[in-house]
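Figure 2 data, in text form.
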Amino acid sequence: MMHREVKQFMRMRKKTNLEPRMARCSGVLIAQPETMYGRWHTLMPQAQAVYLELGCGKGRFTAETAAQNPQALFLAVERVPDAMVIAMERVCGMGLTNVFFIDGDAANLTELFAPSEIDRIYINFCDPWPGNRHSKRRLTHPDFLLRYRQVLSRKGQIHFKTDNKDLYEWSLFQFPKAGFVLSEVTRNLHANGICGVMTDYEEKFHNMGTPINRCVASVGPLHTIPTSRQGQ
């Protein structure tokens, strides 16, 4: 199980020459994402879908998934510049033209994206924020899920992966509260061999024998509006 202490231990050192490195990759960075509201498709008019990753880290999943889906426009959100610069360099090094990066916050998605503008959201190994008093910070809390609904298309999906069993089991109850229908629910994704693109964290913990949990949540009918208490 990935605890916050482990994540803190694994955090990278501050990168040298961050600004010039970011500048060299400026072509894939959206400096003012709020100005793209409702027109993200203009970045890639031929795109058949728009995928959004929340917290891309060093970008291994970002780059490899985008490479496997050249027909999709891939947008990656990351708040840590030292991580994002590595992801940007990776994407540029692979010559990908369907990936762009956003320095933003998941809480502000409705200010960046118009209704139905996103077809798929990836949430990989987010902070579990243990303890009930921190539950509203989890990216699978109903407050966040309702925001995702606003920007997802009618057939939109959330692809969620985590090594944290407690967060996963809790999240499985939150998705239906926000009107999402669950499928592909597994508590050991790689039991029969590597399945799909891994993140760096994922590979490290898989090699340690930690089971990886995954599910897909599809937009469905919203019968009730969750309250904060329901998400705790």
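Caption note: The chain has eight helices and eight strands.
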